[in-house]
Design a protein that fits this description.
globular; single chain; 11 strands; D-Maltodextrin-Binding Protein, domain 2; 11 helices; alpha/beta; six-stranded mixed β-sheet
Length: 270
């Protein structure tokens, strides 16, 4: 199938995420989208580049889709969960109901809001916020709690924390709905003809070959083959369907509510 171009004579620029949890979506993508220019980066940076017009389509945090009404979902392939997600965790140096400060992993703004929503809904907490740069670890902040995402959340810190939440598990238990962390989105004015088919085929191939992906990726993320396979197969959900839509709608409503609160140290929304 012929793939659309961004404009006449230019290659479509696609931003893909470099974390383990996206491998089933992107492992086969270079071959299926060989006419496109692929860029791999963390979700928050891809969202910035999409907004700046440096990318045409990107796998971005779901909150970034909600913040930009002109964006369009171009595939039912997504990164979601229907229970424990393993790669988005909140760690407390004290019981989470008592925290007053929170360091947020720079990599994903959706997880930032998810943590804040759950802390508010469970404990009516609005902790002081700070960013934890991608090249820094939990030991580099004195915050009461630390949010980690991606591969480094799977390799949980072993010392100094007394409680942790798997945010996927917390959300699904509390809301009775799945959670959608990221989706394929196009900025306005982009011809996306054929992309739903390409991205769906890439996802379907990845889901069918999780054993191969786990075998290839386990060493790079410091996990055993069995751990990597279980994560990709059992913790993640890659289909954006009706229940995922309802979960995203609820998250949108709660995000609007939490962002209107006068939280101390509220991070700027770009």
């Amino acid at each position: 199938m012929e793939m659309a171009t961004a404009s006449r004579g230019t290659r479509l620029r696609i931003g893909a995420v470099s974390y383990l949890n996206t491998k089933p979506l992107v492992y086969r993508l270079p071959a299926l989208a060989s006419d496109a220019q692929l860029v791999f980066d963390v979700p928050s940076r891809l969202a910035d580049d999409l907004h700046a017009g440096q990318l045409d389509i990107a796998l971005i945090p779901s909150i970034e889709y909600l913040r930009h009404p002109g964006y369009a979902i171009v595939s039912n392939a997504c990164i979601g969960c229907r229970g424990p997600v393993l790669s988005v965790k909140l760690f407390g140096r004290k019981p989470l109901r008592k925290i007053r400060s929170l360091a947020l992993d720079e990599g994903s703004r959706t997880s930032h809001l998810l943590a804040r929503i759950l802390l508010w809904e469970r404990y009516r907490l609005q902790p002081r916020l700070e960013l934890l740069p991608i090249d820094r670890g939990p030991e580099d902040t004195a915050a009461d709690a630390v949010l980690l995402i991606g591969d480094r959340a799977i390799r949980s810190p072993s010392q100094g924390f007394v409680e942790f939440w798997d945010l996927g598990d917390q959300w699904c238990r509390w809301s009775k709905l799945p959670f959608v962390f990221a989706m394929w989105v196009a900025r306005p004015g982009i011809d996306v003809a054929g992309m739903d088919d390409i991205l769906g085929r890439a996802r379907d191939w990845g889901v069918a070959h999780v054993e191969e992906i786990a075998r290839a990726e386990a060493a790079a993320v410091g996990l055993s083959y069995e751990q990597t396979l279980a994560y990709l197969r059992d913790n993640l959900h890659f289909y954006f369907n009706g229940r995922e839509q309802r979960g995203l709608e609820l998250f949108s409503q709660l995000a609007q509510k939490i962002e209107s609160l006068p939280a101390e140290g509220k991070l700027p929304v770009r």
